[in-house]
Amino acid sequence: MPTLDVSVHLDPTSLAAQMAQDVRDGLTRVPKVLPPKYFYDARGSELFDEITRLPEYYPTRTERAILVEHVAQIAAVTEASTLIELGSGTSEKTRLLLQALQAAGTLRRFVPFDVDPAVLAEASEAVGAEFDGLVVEPVVGDFEKHLGELPRQGRRLLAFLGSTVGNLDREQRTAFFADVRATLGEGDAFLLGTDLVKDPARLVAAYDDAQGVTAQFNLNVLHVINRSLGADFDPDAFTHRAVWDAEEEWIEMRLESARDQDVRVADLDLDVSFTRGEQMRTEISAKFRRAGVAAELAAAGLELVHWWTDPNDDFALSLSVP
Ligand code: AVJ
């Protein structure tokens, strides 16, 4: 077994400090807000996995179907020797891309990029064992901060799937796409998965499923904060909400306080009160249109060259180049 050289741009101390700062900022804002990146502890990742298999949650299976249909073309037009995958590195979508690039004969290197070293180690070992001769170079980092640290060798395909970009608001996306553009050179390409605007009833159902899995996923962030920062949130005293914002064209997940209550976050020496009915935003999940994606990419200096969707126009994969 070859040893893995993990390059780390995020040590556990800075991760914890970042979380402390984010939670303090969010809980002292009006209205209160929590960043979605803290959903994904072991339990949260398990719940997300369950979400991807729910009948109401179409994005994962739809993106996979688009990829199956077009992955050979993606490999042919990119001729990538390096696949860089932002956030995840565990999915079967990665394998589809790796298989297609291997079949095209260009694949040399795989760079999974994730905040979670454990996720990364697992993904790297599995993929390394599965693809003969593949050089696996995992990078631990935050895609909003460390894209500048990505390895530069080879013809690179940078993949950001699952519509995770929808967790960013427009200002954050502007900065993110600029970072993507800055790390890409001539011959490189950017593969982006975006969920598309559609009937609000379907969108709301996808984020408020009948089995209540998304509700558990949303509430899990309170368990994460309790454990990581010594807080005493009572998850039973909050209710999951999913709301379509037609103006912003995004889904908002919120946690609504079922009663007047005080919460103490011991590690931050912070006391916060919630009034009955008060809603705290825990996630935005922006939905896109082709023209908007093309315009945002163009503003960063990326040209959209391919746009693949499913027959229902529910989800899109785009390929853009510097
Ligand atoms: C992983 C961020 C793409 O926004 O659809 C799923 C997360 N939240 N259900 C999304 C999520 C609620 C998901 N992303």
Question: What is the N-to-C order of secondary-structure elements (H for helix, E for strand)?
Answer: EHHHEHEHEEEHEHHEEEEEHEE
Helix content: 25-40%
Judged by helices, strands and strand pairing, the structural class is alpha/beta
Mean pLDDT: 94
Unreliable stretches covering 5 or more consecutive residues: none
Total count of strands: 14
Per DSSP, the total helix count is: 9
Describe this entry's structure for a reader.
The relative contact order is 0.17. Helix 4 (92-103) links the parallel strand 2 (82-86) and strand 3. The protein is 38% helix and 24% strand. Helix 3 (59-78) packs parallel to helix 4. By secondary structure, it is an alpha/beta fold. The strands form three sheets. Strands 1, 2, 3, 4, 5, 6, 7, 13 and 14 form a nine-stranded mixed β-sheet that branches. The protein binds N,N,N-trimethyl-histidine.
Task: Please describe the structure with a list of short key phrases separated by commas or semicolons.
3-stranded antiparallel beta sheet; EC 2.1.1.44; 38% helix; binds N,N,N-trimethyl-histidine; alpha/beta; 9-stranded mixed beta sheet; 322 residues; Histidine N-alpha-methyltransferase; MeTrfase_EgtD-like
